[in-house]
What does this fold into?
Amino acid sequence: MTYLEHHSLSFEFPALSEPDWAAKVDRWYQLDAYAYGLSQAWWQLRGQLGERPALLILASPGASNETDWNFARTGATSPSKFVHTLPNVRASALCQVMDWSGPMLCVQQDPQTVVSGIREGAGLLGAQWPRVWVMSILKNSAGHYETHVFVLAVSEKLAGPEQFELKQVIAQGSQDSYFMAWLKAKKELI
Amino acid sequence: MAQAKTWITAYGCTSSAGPGVADYWTALCQGKDQSRALLAAAWPVPVTFEPRACIWPETTDSVSKVLTAQLLQAWKSVEAEALDGGEPLGVIFASTKGAIEDFIWNKTLSPEQPDSLTPVLNYFLRQAGIQPKRSLCISNACASSLSALFLAQRWLAQGEVTQVLVLAADRVGPFVTQGFHSLRALTGQRARPFDRSRDGLMLGEAAAVLLLSAKPGKGESHELEAVGLDAEGFAVTRPSLSGDSLQRACLQLPLLREAPPELIVAHGTGTVLNDQTEAHVFTQLFEAARIKPSITGTKWCIGHTLGASGAMDVIAACRVLETQNVFHLANTHEVDPAFRGNFLAARDSAANFLPSERAVRRVLITSLGFGGVHAAATLRRWEG
It folds into this structure.
């Protein structure tokens, strides 16, 4: 049986202090909120996340719209902002912080980007990739974000208390907002 | 999950060379560089240089309308094969930033709006009258097309669909042009991949449609043997000089070292670091090969078409397998002496191609993307 384990971390951006992993990333202070949030989540949650993934999926609603806006507002002249206008690029800092390399897919399908990412992860899970992570960042309000890490694996490989049967998760199959509300309700029950 | 046997059963494209595969192939074989000056006077940001790119005919239509129209044009070559038999179809759209131009300069819109790719995919599906069993957008930088092929192979293996349509398209506008200019990544003249005096890339526009199937098609089909994919944490805009990540992607392809391909359609952007990394990896991979693969590329001709570039390279590879003619790097007159390998530099004649001296049965295609994402694929001529 395959399961999904959910972890999350709220964070504020811009960061108020230098992160503990700053030395691992060249010019960490140039990262956008999304690249920062992925790295910070791994660093803060690494004790709970267990083994690193065999395959990684990035699935954040809105892609890199916020960073695109910031680049355009500079008159489209800032190279340090331009490089973060691709939504897959945020994996680069994460790979440096968690010392990882492997297959990575950045998917979009608003308003179902998170649900689609989990669905693809479930489809790819198997002998070749026995542990798949789907990572999403959701923006709550100005400067306030949440990183969500969905760890997909067979049950024996998961350690956290909040596990959901993957079939049941995928059956929700609706828009991200409904799915996140369903997940929150389930976690409160636990 | 084992990789299913996968065939490319039909393909179509549009590019700066014209509205069909034949135009693209003719430009490659005649050595025609499609770059020209862009009309940047009306752009929403001031431009302090004279931008050039390989573009479609200019229009005032919205980007999503242009991308959809170009994809629909490419779709015409694939439609009959795709819809024959009513097989369950999946659709994956691969792209990067092109579609952003529609709303990024509009100050009344907010960053909270949906991603820019999904509306283009949905618009295309409505216009083409396709109701896919599943669909998705992939945004893996300049490795988006090959990443879409990677996923398409898995969809076919999962069995829910028996055909997957991979759409790939990108558009050149002020956002992308200014961005690459800010990185000093653009050439001011011509893209000269693997040349000793290469000085940057030329941007380009293209739309490609590839039909992948779990069984060979009625016409000529090519086997997509495998796609390798790897992401590394090194630097955002350049690959590690060791090329470890690209090499890992290549080594996911079965028997690549043991049975080297006859030809490589390299990513070959014409930037110093991209070409250096690729040349290094090809040397490492094929050092022991008795006959070294020939190395060519397409970006000197139609520019770097970003999210569509891998699909355009796959189409060029299909044409090589069909015609057994091998096109050269027409703008490359002196291969960088630091590179070892059988690079196909410009020919001193009107024709930029030669019939291959040995049968081309297998072609390696590589893509390198910002954020350290690398992909490689092998196509095999199927002689069913």
Summary: Residues 144-158 of chain B form the longest helix (15 residues). Chain B touches chain A through 54 residues (CB under 8 Å).
